[in-house]
């Protein structure tokens, strides 16, 4: 990284101009006025994303020998009903019945309370936090917010607000409604009253096929496709455990109020891992390799006490103290950290936040988000959850397909377990075409469910339950079914694996890296640079002929052919702009190296290599220069080390 990089106040406006000017990304359908939450990536954005995804594949899929799948985005209703998304994948929205404006309830509470705290700080003459810039939308809204005037709050109220904000991700709809009433939160623009929060499902609904009868959704995550292929994947892995599947693909969420550019969009690229592990042994065979890595943690008890103070600990300490639930989860937190650093995340602006008890799904054993600090605040970019056996169990129960691992036991064991005995002959006449479905439903129950059913049968002499595909409730007495605890000698251990799921939103990560790597040359604040790591930079080399003299053309062609052969992504800039301007253009594109071709190059094929960040230059043969570029880009070699055998070159002014 540059030795010249001095901290200057980050300007989001300036970054946005660069990203737009160089077409990293832009609103989709822009000439039609655009649609909120939808973006197209331009050439440098595409190349950057492709390189990040390539690094992700190498870092996780290849390094960890994961099984990659590519599943469909269109998903039938039944699958997402079973997974819980149809009923629960929702955010809370509230409407202003007069103006029709819609707000996401938690974001509204957060924005208003933050604004009031800012007003309070202003009244007390305290400077507001640096780096918390506001996007245009937020600014527009805030302009109209009457209460952002500097109004001093009581100390108790400040404490209360801070406490609410620390836990903002964990509130239910009714709790948000209570907060809105308690703190008199109205439409910030008009001060008009708002409806209490109602649930809004975030999935895009569609119909599959012309009849319109097969209801479906665009998937909101890639995970379900991986779970449904579990048995095939286990087979691919020769039935060996633990193992992981992985998938990279688009997901869709009909966000209530998309905002903050790439950070909250309606269609985005996800990279997800489902690591299947024995529930009785969540150790990880490679834990030793990462155990000493130190991470910054924000545990749930700290947030629940209204604070956001970070604790720095090694992963080893975090797991052995029980703060992180198990070794495998800890292993992935460290691997996530290493990946993010590799692609340009600033480690000092990365923290791992644990989900609070009321935020975490009831089945999850533990959950941590990798959050990156940006001018929009701390943003969740990677979720990493131990989802226990939930997903495989629910799909198994719904389809009656066993999604389990069967392992021969070293010694037979005597076990006590619940078994279902069905009076098959009576099922046919009672249930007719549904007899098989009811039978399979009973046989697919887990031991815990059987324990409950057995109790119910003993106490009431009957059990009553509901199966989705059968309209009426089903009632069975002991003539039809017996559920009893029996002793059996077993030679095989059968279990449903637990799943540890690291889930990456690529767009959020890309944007955070832009912010973390954007700076301006101290001598001129308009000469901005995107210091993307060479590994992921869209183009590695800018080829710059010193002049447009025809004499240089053959050597430019020759060097281009050599770079192509060596598979180094490059661009030629033979425009008439000054050399400094040409470099400046590429500094904004994040191109880490410049190769300058001059009249000496014609004589001896030597060239000059320029480093984007330090603007240092060295001279050498084309072969040696390309070797240095490849070493620095792909082999993690520093500029100093990579160019140590090349001749330092006096760089002229780049003005
Ligand atoms: N609307 C979105 N736009 C861009 N990326 C997203 C969006 N929603 C989720 N992601 C990304 O997908 C990852 C995994 O999704 P997950 O369901 O855990 O997010 P989430 O908890 O719903 O996010 P949030 O609370 O911010 O809406 C997130 O860490 C994030 O990087």
From TrEMBL:
Task: List UniProt keywords, sorted A-Z.
Answer: Aminoacyl-tRNA synthetase, ATP-binding, Cytoplasm, Ligase, Nucleotide-binding, Protein biosynthesis, Transferase
Q: Which InterPro entries match?
A: aa-tRNA-synt_IIb, aa-tRNA-synth_II, aa-tRNA-synth_II/BPL/LPL, Anticodon-bd, Anticodon-bd_dom_sf, Gly-tRNA_synthase/POLG2, GlyRS-like_core, tRNA-synt_gly
Return the similarity comment: Belongs to the class-II aminoacyl-tRNA synthetase family.
What reaction gets catalysed by this protein?
A: 2 ATP + H(+) = P(1),P(4)-bis(5'-adenosyl) tetraphosphate + diphosphate
Entry-linked Pfam families: HGTP_anticodon, tRNA-synt_2b
**Which cellular component, as a GO term, is one annotated location?**
mitochondrion
| Record has Metal-binding as a keyword | no
Question: What protein name applies here?
Answer: glycine--tRNA ligase
Q: Which organism is it from?
A: Debaryomyces fabryi
Protein role: Catalyzes the ATP-dependent ligation of glycine to the 3'-end of its cognate tRNA, via the formation of an aminoacyl-adenylate intermediate (Gly-AMP). Also produces diadenosine tetraphosphate (Ap4A), a universal pleiotropic signaling molecule needed for cell regulation pathways, by direct condensation of 2 ATPs. Thereby, may play a special role in Ap4A homeostasis.
EC main group: ligase
Q: Which GO terms describe its molecular function?
A: ATP binding; glycine-tRNA ligase activity; transferase activity
Record domain Aminoacyl-transfer RNA synthetases class-II family profile: where = 191-522
